[in-house]
Structures are given as C-alpha cells and as structure tokens.
Predict the structure.
Amino acid sequence: MKRTLTTCPYCGTGCRFYLLTDDMGKVCGVEASTEHHISRGQLCIKGWNAYEFVNHPDRLTTPLIRKNGKLVPSYWQEAIDCVAKRLKEISEKYGSDSLMFFSSAKTTNEENFAMMKLARAVFRTNNIDHCARLCHSSTVAGLAASFGSGAMTNSISCMEKAKCILVIGSNTTEQHPLIGTRIINNVIENGCKLIVADSRAIRLSRFAEIHLRHKNGTDVALLNGIMNIIIKEGLEDKEFISERTENYEELKKTVEKYTPEIVSEITGLKEEEISEAARIFGESKPAMIVYAMGITQHTHGVDNVKSCANLAMLTGNLGVEGGGVNPLRGQNNVQGACDMGALPDVYSGYQKVTDEKVRKKFEKVWRVSPLPDKPGLTATEAISAAAEGKLKALYIMGENPILSDANQNHVRKAFGNLEFIVVQDIFPTSTTEFADVVLPACCYAEKDGTFTSTERGVQAVNKAANPPGNAMDDWKIFSEIAIRLGYNGLNYKSPSEILEEINSLTPSYAGITPKRIKKEFLQWPCPDENHPGTPILHKEKFARGRGKFHAVEFKPSAELPDEKWPLLLSTGRCYFHFHTGTMTRRSKLLDREERFPYVELHPDDAKKIGLADREYCLVSTRRGEIKAMARITDMVIPGIIFMPFHFFEGAANVLTNNALDPESKIPEFKVCAANIRKIEDEGINIC
Amino acid sequence: MKALTSAEMKSFLKSLTGEYDVRAPVRLEDGTRALGHLDEGRLAIEGGPIARKPNDIFFPQFDVILNAKGNKFKVADSLQKPLFVIGFTAEDCECLEFVDKFYSENFRDEIYFAKRDKAVIAAVSGKCGKDGEMLKIAGGKCDLEFIYDGSKYIVCAYTLKGKKIEEKIKCEEKSAKIDELKKLSDSIHNEDLEILKKAGELIRKNAVPDDFWKEIANRCISCTACNIACPTCTCFDVCDHDRERVIERIRMWDSCQLDGFMREASGHNPLGEEYLRARRRIHHKLAADYERWGHITCFLCGRCDDVCPTNIGIKSVNREIVKRFG
C-alpha cells in the first residue's frame, strides 16, 4: 500500500486526497486529507470515487492511426511522425491559422502551457482555446472589464463568513459540493441569509431566505431590479462608490427604469420577491455573490457577469472578507488553463498577444521570432471556421467537443470537413471517432504537475501509478512533436522545469515555484517568492484602478419558446457525472446512479403531453431530436425543462443553440426553444 | 508487565517488519494521520482514532477478488506476510468484532478472512487520546493492547497471537499501575452512549416522524462519506472488468445513501426517496441490526461525524432525536 497526496480531478473546488495504490501499483482507493483547508477529511461523491476510472479496461494504451477508414494500433514513432508531418503540411499549404489547438481544463498547468507553446512557438498560431469558452469565458471577460481581473475575488473560506450569500445560476451542492455545504452550514450555524436565484429547485433553495425562480435568461433584469430597490431605499454603499468606482451615474440612470413592476413582467417573479431579495442583500454586510454557468452560458453571459459586479460594487462588497464576486469554475483546472494562456488572445497571466513588449519577452525566452500578433480563433469560432472550410486541422487534448459543444450536428459537420484531427485523451470518446490519430495520455493519477482551483489556488498533482500500456504524459507528447519539427524549446526534463518557465514569464505566478507549492497553498497573484499569495483581490483598489460600473440593459435570449417549440430547454450537469462522462461513466457507482439520458419536466407539462414518470419521450429543437427518459419533478417550473449533457446515447447538445455571446463567444446552453412528445407505436422503450 | 516508551515502541515495531506487514498510525506529508507503513511518515500512535477506519485493511474500498479466464478461476493472492496492525481504539475493536461476526455468520467471506485470520490486532488506549485525553481500555476483543500511562505503553496480551508478539518485546518487566488506568477508563462518562441508546429506543418504537428524516435528507448531499468512514458498514457492489478476455471481478464499497443502492431493474425503488435513505442509515444500525444481532451496531467511533460536510453524522442525529422526541 502506498499513498500519494494529490488534487481531485473533478470540479474546481480543489479538494486534496491521498490516492491509495496496492502492491501491484494499481490505484485502489481514496483517503481524504484531514489537514487540507478545503477537504478537512471530506469529499463529494465524485472525489470518493476518483480512483476507479483509472484502471478501467477502456483506457487508451497505444497510439491509433486511421488507415483505410479504421483506427488501427500503431506505435509512438509512427504516430508522432504522422502528426508532425500532417500538421506541417497543412500549415504550409493553407497557412498557420488553418490549424487549431484545443487545450484542456482537465490537464495540468504545465501541460496547458506546453500546448500553448506548441501552438504559438512551433506552429506560429494563436488559434488555441479550451473549454472555458463553453463555461466561464463570460467571467473572464466580464470581471476583467469591471475589476481588471477575471477571476474569483475571494476565497472559499469566505463562504463561512458572509452574512448574506446570493447564489445565482449555480447548483452548488451538485457542482461544487464542498462549497455548497459550507453555504448550508453558514446558514444553519450562523444564520447567514441565503438568496437563491435559480428557476430549478436546487438543494440550496431549501435553506434559502428567499428562492427566486426567475425565467432562464432574465438575470440582467433581475439584478437590475434588485439594484433599483437598493438605490431607491438608500442601501447603496455611497462611500465605496465614491472612493473606489467609476461610471456610477450611468448605472444609476439605467437601473432606474427596472422597477419591480417591469422586472416582474420580464422574470415571472412577484414584485415583492424582488423587493425582499434587494433588502436582504442591501442590508447585509458582508454580502457575497456566488455564481456559475447558469448565468454565464447565455448570449448575454458577459452582461450577466457585469451585472453581478455592479451589484457587488453598489453595496461595497469587494475587497472584504465574506464578500466578493465568486464564480465557481466547473473543472479542476479551468482556472489554470486560462492562467496558462490556453486562450486565443493572451499568453500566460493574461498577457495580451497584441502587446509588442509581451511578445518580445516570450520570443526571447522561447527563442522564436516572430510570434503571431493577432488574436486567434475561439473554440466556438473554430467550429464554424471548420464548417466553412477555413480551418483544416484540429489538435485536441483531453476534450470531447462532439459531445460538449452546442449544436452537435453543426460540430459533426465541421469535424467531417477537417483534413486532419488529432485527439489526445485517456479514453476513447465520441470525438475520437472522428480522429485521424489518437494518442493515449496519462490521467491525473499518472502524472506530476499543478492545478489551479476556482479560488486561484495552485496545488500539486502527484503521480501515484504508472500509466497503462504506452500512455504518455501530455507534455512529453508535445515535446516529441516539437522535436520532429526542429524545435527544442519543449524539451523539458520535468513538469517542475515547465513551472519554472511559467514563473519567469508570468508575473502573477512568479512566486509560485515548484519548491513552494510542495508546502504552501498559494493563491495568485503571487509576484515573488516571498509573497504569501492573495486570498482576497481588490482590497485597497481594483486591479484596473477603479471598479467600473457598466450600464447593462436586459436583452432576451436568442431563441425563445413559441407555438411550435413551447418549452424552454436548459442544460447542465448532474451530481454524479462530470461533463461528457468520460471518467465518471467508467466509475461503477457513479454510472449506476445516472445511467440514462433524462429530461426533467414539471408535472403540469407532463400532463399536457401525457407522459408518465420514467417514460421515454422525444425531445426536439430546431436543430435535432433525441430520446430521453421523462423525469417528472417540481425541480423545474412549468414551461422549462432541463437535461444533463453527459450522455452520448441521448446527447443534449444535439438540441442546444450555438448562438454566441458576442464578446465571450460562449454558446447559449441555458436557453433554447424545445418540444417534447410521446413516442408512439414503437413497442417497448429500451434505451 | 512489559512496558515500552514511545522510542522503544518505534524500535519494536521496526523489529516486527521482517515477519509481519506492520501498519501503524503515522503522520503523512500534509499532517493527515493515517494507518500506514512505518516509512510513510512519523509514527503517531497518540491522537485517538485515525481518520480512516482501520478495518479497511481486510475489506478495502476496491478489491480484485478473483480473475476468470474461460472456465478457470484464480482467487486473488493472499498476503505474503501476516498483518500486524496497531492503532485500533476500543471502539474500533468492537466494530471489528461485529464485522468478523457479520462475515462469518450464514456465510463465510473467505476473501475477508484470508487477511483477517492471520492478522494481529493491537489496540491502543490509556492517556493517548487527542491532547492526552483518556481512551477507553479495550480489555479484549483484540490480540493485545498497549495502554499508555502517560510515559509508557503497558503491554497486555489477550490471545496466543498476542502473547507471541509480547514475547518478542525485549524490556524489563515492571509492576504497572494498570488498575488505576482501568479505573480511569471505567470512569469515562460517555454521554454519547447514553444518547445512542435513547435514540435507538425512540427509533425502535417509531417515535421519530418522517418530517425529521426529511430535514436530515435536505442536508445530505449523498457524498457517501458516512458509509465510507463507518467501520461497521459492510455493503458492497461488484463489477467485472474484461481485460482481453480475462475477467477481473472487483468488489467495492457501496452506499445505502445512493439512489441506485436498492433500485430495481424496473426502476422501482424501495428507497427511492431521499428521506428514506437518510432514515435507513441510522435505522439500520439502531433498529434493524438491534433486532438481528441483539445490539446496536454503532460503536460511536465518531468518524461519520467527522467526515460529514453538513454535520449530520450519527452522533449529531442522535442528539437531535433525543432532544426533540425524547
């Protein structure tokens, strides 16, 4: 028996546990860290089962190359040669921007940095992105505009110190369970006043002072309405506004028209509910806002985020313990992937590619010149570019866009149009079916490196076991490809060496050295080796100087229900699964809990359609139709249905709308017009 | 009686490693106290119950129990060395006694006993709880016990396996103040035990309404930590991995707090409501097991209270039951 301390590979909370390895070197259990400030001996269902998928027989163990239309086993030299050769050919034929790189929020900081470097230094393209585009790109854009830094302003421990918490668009106990339980405990033990704004009756709503079941997509109206009341009743923090913010008068003018009457009409809430929520938040200090993809995955996702920032500034709840605007990142390293520059417009530390001084710095260290100076394609734009024939090759690490991206039929068409696709992953997925080369990668239990949690904390990931077969570290694969193309700048000896390079190039990570992270929990910005890290951002002043209010107007979602498509479809995750289910559906207990695609609908809607609980039905939108099990529940309000997107057998993203937020390019996963009908004359319904 | 200082204990445990697979409480790299090999960290026998239940050594979270190829079956190899495990508390010994009974009555779980039968179980008690508080003396239900008097561990062997270990201890035999320690142990006022008994009575006479269990269920996030932590939880699920036509049969801990635990193929689920599962967790040990075994099968080790993120471990729930319905 051996124990290896590491970081959970699931959500962004950053829990720590020991992986137990048996005498044969197999990972065989999990033991929570009792001393870690987040875990405290506790984990969620996914954490307790995080060992199991590691040994699953489906693991990719050898490179696969498509020959005569079939993926056949190969060996590393052939596979690497193929990848390097084909990408080079395509780059030379169509230009470097005909290539696209999808990095991964599930791999380490070092590996995200390495892929970013591969794209920029070797292939000379800024066409690199990752799945933050699908979840919190609105956060990065919105909070950066308001505060100067697009990250969680406070720490998870602040959840226990807030007098009031507004949870909006976050099913916290399911998506970030050990954050959700802190909220519950704060309510029960300390009398914290909880406001939940979510159309679904999530668990947290059972503890809420008030539960606002507003219509999906009306968050701006709701938040503006709350601010309207706060200003009208003189609950705003005048001193904070005066001393630390700008553009307040424009905000005030805008929210003036969002009276409870108007907001009630837009959101479906009662006027008194809006007023009550405003008074609770406005009269409590410190008060905190917690949000997740319920407000980011909209064509107005950035506006939603800016509205949260507005409310926090209005009430002076920034730079204080127990306050802040706190986006909860959905994946273990999505914060880290953003930090490492796996984005089309920035290098690590959000240093802009358009900044000549920054480019020169990277050119010098990487010994390449010139680096591309134009922002590249986002992941969502890349899909369309492929469909249009402008993008020719795609290299994917640890992502499954066939299942995770909106409007799957559009994605399939796009992928079918590409000349070359590389997928580097730990399991075969829906996306590997399109790949020309599949490269077997190490999972979190088989590598060293770091993850950065939602609270900006950098933590070590440590190797507990050897990978199966010939699976390789992601960063080593990039190194091999680079060598084939004559570039030695990715010839690292270890992840620590990569982190040292990150330290040298990234001011906010300069102090987060390999030596320190062995013993310390460090939250960026950490500008030097003596800096203790930054638990709370924007204390004395905002990163941009003054916090900027934005005058945000409500805009309806891109596609709303009508006569033909009378229901509003929202999609998301369930407790037992993680994203496209690549890992959790290979964990016995987790997969047993939720094995089939399902759709939640209200009893009133079920009655109209004539559906019984657990009856299979057809869910359709303008983009497609899938089969799912009806789950009749008052978790949803009449007129709104909810589907998880984990199941390839009934892929919710066949249905979703790929309309994008114009600024963050995030798809509108949370709103589209749908229909449900019974399955007639098809005999026994077997999924 | 023989007695060992802390330093002597460390040397003694090292001396056993040639013959036994020795597991002892150690401080891991981040300070977590766990039952591990001596080289995993600083020996940390003082401190009371270790966070993870010690009997998982015999019933691991994930265990390959056999391999099958065609008509041939191969049971997993047994341990090369017998286990020597030190660090059980008196409560842990009671839990182990129950689990031994569970796995041997009506059927005998040979996978479990392949490790268990050869193992030597050493309890630790006396003035070595957290912050030096008194830990109850087991006085049996284990092979030997080390009772800390504040400066030395007094050795008490209870079985032949224990006496064999005791004989290996090379130190002068001294008179010990064991009686004083036993008096201290007997004088420990266990309020939780009284509450446990009272809660059990209330549950068995159906005095706890469904609404109470709904309140508890509201706070439960189904993380399953209570079952993972509980030394008397024995439920497991089985799955088979097909590795190139070699079937690997695995059993893993299950949890009655999961919807799938009792869900039938038709979808019907006797425990389909959250409050029923929340109730079952407590009811099983305080009522159902009481009827079956003649005693409550919670021995108040406290682990489920430590690992529950929303503070609804069994001690907490019992206190609430007695407070509201007692």
About this structure: The longest helix of chain B spans residues 274-293. Chain B touches chain A at residues 28-34, 36-37, 40, 51-52, 56, 60-64, 218-219, 221-225, 228, 237, 239, 241-243, 250, 252, 254-255, 258-260, 267, 306-311 (CB under 8 Å). The longest strand of chain B covers residues 62-69.
